[in-house]
Amino acid sequence: MTKQIHLAAHFPGVNNTTVWSDPRSLSQIEFSSFTHLAETSERALFDFLFLAEGLRLREHAGRIYDLDVVGRPDTFTVLAALAGVTDRLGLAGTINSTFNEPYEVARQFASLDHLSAGRAAWNVVTSWDAFTGENFRRGGFLPEDQRYERARRFLETTIELFDSWRGDEVVADKDSGTFLSDPRAGEFAHSDAHFDIRGRFTVPRSPQGRPVIFQAGDSDAGREFAASRADAIFTRHSTLQAGKDFYADVKSRLAAHGRSRDELLVFPATSVVVGDTDADAQEQAAIIRKQQVSGPTAIAFLEQLWNTDLGELDPDGPLPDFDPVVDGDTLSKGRASTRMFGDRLATARGWRELAEAKNLSIRELIIEVTARQSFIGSPSTVAEEMNRFVQEDASDGFILVPHLTPGGLDDFVDRVVPLLQERGVYRTEYPGTTLRENLGLPTLP
């Protein structure tokens, strides 16, 4: 059976994805930028617009990471505002489960779900570092197993709050013209090692039952967490085979949790460069990558792995001839990439082998190792490759990460989406009014 492709947009925020030197690159905080990307996404019948989260300005070598100075606005505020300028587009936000509280997050998402008529989604994440935790009363951080355990309990608790209202608890009294509330409406009580709360939830059940639950993470714990509760999982794979392996693994875990394969969607993040020809697109893509990874950026990224000052190195020269510093404090603070290196010495050996095999300079190596899944080519080539990934079970769709804000998806929407529609693998209208309906997820009781 031919699968339908799901598409979504990521507002990139502060990172090296955005080509800041391009005159078309506009504000990361003005509402007009969010509006443009949201309206473009809805015009293209995308499932949702996704916002990431940054709970603290990142630092490198004791200085604020320069891209963070453009601002990191509050997720709920932006999504609530976008609910008023869109009709069908889902509104997905990343909210941390380590430093927040279930009642507060459940109330905010339930409110957003009502304001948007059933289009809210929550990307459940954990926070891994004490640096970020210093911004919060609880502070500190939790080991990975405890972080995911708290996240599981957090999600269970919020779902109890969402589900504490049922259908007809609130009824209208025709004689008095007032509303009568069943005393059981919104009643909850939850007690475990992390949370001990009880009371009455203030927001009635939303149009889609409860917000769609997303989870991001490629670790084994992350995959298991997604398989147990999430409606969709975000991932990142650079090849078709890697995507197929991840897809098969995550889908195989669902049965153990009493779930079917269609209850969890897989969304890799990807970038797209569309040109008049394949050669034109490849040329554009090479230019974009060099703009994204300048010489200083390459050195700064290398310093994240080596964990030492490499400012004297030539970015167009070879890698350091000494090993990374594995002990002591980390040079970069608040960056998720620093924990993804795992074994720093092993990663450095791998980078050296790659650089030697391909005769790569530092900058060329960083361009290669930081590249995300990309579709590069003419409109027909991009459409064909995206369809191949979905039909061969490497994904259920894609979250598109533009290199320009806010107009980076305009070409894709105008030139590729119509070809996907012609192939019969992409919708020509929204099938429903809620995000859960548009994603094709099972209806909640």
TrEMBL record:
Pfam families: Bac_luciferase. The keyword Flavoprotein applies. The lineage of its organism: Bacteria, Bacillati, Actinomycetota, Actinomycetes, Pseudonocardiales. The keyword Coiled coil does not apply. One of its GO terms (molecular function) is monooxygenase activity. FMN binds at residues 94, 148, 219. Residues 27-391 form the Luciferase-like domain. This is FMN-dependent oxidoreductase, nitrilotriacetate monooxygenase family. InterPro entries: Diverse_substr_monoxygenases (IPR051260), Luciferase-like_dom (IPR011251), Luciferase-like_sf (IPR036661), NTA_MOA (IPR016215). SUPFAM superfamilies: Bacterial luciferase-like. Belongs to the NtaA/SnaA/DszA monooxygenase family. Keywords: Flavoprotein, FMN, Monooxygenase, Oxidoreductase.
